[in-house]
């Protein structure tokens, strides 16, 4: 972090494998906060969000990430959601404020099921997150904002109530596109997590496959880090496990079969196991078998 970047994505929201959040005060602040009136604290930060001063609002959004960790704050956090979402849609605002707004929304959605539902029902949440993930046309996308937007979309995708807003906002298309457009390794890892969350819903898989997710994921595993690779394989496993169409698409991607064969020898147990299951599914598919036979025939010396 430099003086020019007052905030940056760091671990925050209490969810499995978090990858992004806002800059937070030290943990030693928490015991003193527990002694204060939660209602007053949350209302103060909401007022700061509405102050019109972006520096004040940046700090307020970061404070809300911290407050969302405290159970006593839960009843008072819904009032912050609408204001935080509004920041996602304003291209004139500091990218640091938008980063922290995404992180605060992630923290709020993960701290309590009722808050998740409140956020998921907000009509412009998914649209705002898609905007942050894609960035403005003709301008460079901020990787920290992408990271936090992808993390929020990943949380939104975990429950069925978030699927409607995601489909309406075409967030699944944006996530699939970001698989190849994202240059930052952490962003790519978070994007794959979001696609895994979507793929875990059986009623979303056909839609995701039709949008080209399998071919994009098949390209990602060919040069992915172990962390991204295992997540990518999980997504492919969910999409290709029972879909003949997805299996044919996977086998047809240049380099995908060779990559699976290599991953089957990995020292990483999860990578090895999932890639073996994927390859086994391909060999059992009557439509894929001719593709595999043609592939291996060309590998044999003449």
TrEMBL record:
Positions the record marks as coiled coil are: none
List the keywords (alphabetical): Ubl conjugation pathway
Q: Does RNA-binding count among this protein's keywords?
A: no
UniProt biased composition (Pro residues): 8-17
* Chain spans, region Disordered: 1-25
Tell me which SUPFAM superfamilies the record gives: ARM repeat
Q: Does the keyword Zinc apply?
A: no
On the tree of life, the source organism's domain of life is Eukaryota
The record's section on PANTHER family has:
U BOX DOMAIN-CONTAINING (PTHR23315), U-BOX DOMAIN-CONTAINING PROTEIN 4 (PTHR23315:SF7)
Q: What is this protein called?
A: Uncharacterized protein
